Amino acid sequence: MAAAELEYESVLCVKPDVNVYRIPPRTSNRGYRASDWKLDHPDWTGRLRVTSKGKTAYIKLEDKVSGELFAQAPIDQYPGIAVETVADSSRYFVIRIQDGTGRSAFIGIGFTDRGDAFDFNVSLQDHFKWVKQETEISKESQEADTRPKLDLGFKEGQTIKLNIGNMTSKKGGAAKPRVSGSGGLSLLPPPPGGKIAVPPIPPPSSTAIANHVTPPPVQKSSNASSADILLDLDAPAAASKAPVSATTDLWGDFSTASSAVPNQAPQQSNWVQF
């Protein structure tokens, strides 16, 4: 598909009121002056539209009611001969109109409001600023196509070496840990074997088991009574095991408590006689 078929017409500016004047031919190079025109009696009044198609802009003078085209001026460059400003006012311009046969003529146009004249001028400036940028981009792309392209692919047999921190080197050793002052965490390298030795769990201590001995149950004599247990509280171990005489008083005498045990020297009694 041709590039011309992809172009579409866009509207840049629309002004509902514009006056058209017949202007005298230029007699010198001093430029056009709006004061030489009959400003109070315009030759035609209608609507102005500024459109663009591709890189070319068009000034179209149309009827306000029917929209019928009165005249149009194609513009390839601005500022240029197709659109010129007058020397004595910012509201009036001179444009070059063309018909379908290729004939051209210069006419004057003017706006009642200065804001409309400003918008008309800015719309043409913005369009041709865009045209200039597109031309530069197209030129740069063509120059880039003519330049030899860089081949960044790997050649046959070509390799690349990556140096990654904390990775095992070719000799089997671990890489050096990063310095803590470098901003990152310093981690120690893993052991060469890749396994961490776990200390064995010690067996329970034999000393603790030996010390933990359950005492044998106390065997009581069938002849012993509860009174014998009371007498054993203050008597030594050897005396508590001696047989108790049946004739001895169960509670004993407070003054002779130490002589109740046979074969022992008399000792000072710890009991107090009442």
UniProtKB/TrEMBL annotation:
Residues 255-274 have a biased composition (Polar residues). It is found in: Cell membrane; Cytoplasmic vesicle, Clathrin-coated vesicle membrane. Keywords: Cell membrane, Cytoplasmic vesicle, Endocytosis, Membrane, Phosphoprotein, Protein transport, Repeat, Transport. Residues 167-223, 254-274 are annotated as: Disordered. Residues 188-205 have a biased composition (Pro residues). GO terms for cellular component: clathrin vesicle coat; clathrin-coated pit; plasma membrane. The keyword Nucleotidyltransferase does not apply. InterPro entries: NECAP_PHear, PH-like_dom_sf. It comes from the Eukaryota. Residues 8-165 form the NECAP PHear domain. One of its GO terms (biological process) is endocytosis. The keyword Transmembrane helix does not apply. Involved in endocytosis. Belongs to the NECAP family. PANTHER family: ADAPTIN EAR-BINDING COAT-ASSOCIATED PROTEIN 1, ATP-BINDING CASSETTE ABC TRANSPORTER-RELATED. This is Adaptin ear-binding coat-associated protein 1. It comes from Ficedula albicollis (Collared flycatcher). The lineage of its organism: Eukaryota, Metazoa, Chordata, Craniata, Vertebrata.
